[in-house]
């Protein structure tokens, strides 16, 4: 039994190695593929780059429109907000580390009124 199995394995390995690297099938018969990169190059320049530019322009214009319509909400002093039980360890101790005077209010209100 082991002799038959060894012969079968040997036959399989030799035929596999003999056929390794042989090109068969319709693509090997139909011709070369040396011009295929030209199609992808044209698609990249004529389709992909303009699509990226249009998406970027769309994002930029949407961002500009959003900021043109953006108004700061009025300051309302709520009891549960702006509680300072401990000073911040930087600056005057009242402003957070990433403080923006236009958008972030202090406990008394906004710093600059626009």
From TrEMBL:
Location within or outside the cell: Mitochondrion inner membrane
Pathway participation: Energy metabolism; oxidative phosphorylation
Family annotation (InterPro entries): Cyt_c_oxidase_su6a (IPR001349), Cyt_c_oxidase_su6a_sf (IPR036418)
Membrane-protein topology: Single-pass membrane protein
Key words of the record: Membrane, Mitochondrion, Mitochondrion inner membrane, Transit peptide, Transmembrane, Transmembrane helix
GO MF annotation: an example: enzyme regulator activity
Keyword Membrane: yes
Predominant cellular place of this UniProt entry's protein: mitochondrion
GO biological-process terms attached to the record: mitochondrial electron transport, cytochrome c to oxygen
Pfam families linked to this entry: COX6A
Single GO cellular component term: mitochondrial inner membrane
Family that this chain belongs to: Belongs to the cytochrome c oxidase subunit 6A family.
Protein name: Cytochrome c oxidase polypeptide VIa
Record organism: Photinus pyralis (Common eastern firefly)
High-level lineage: Eukaryota, Metazoa, Ecdysozoa, Arthropoda, Hexapoda
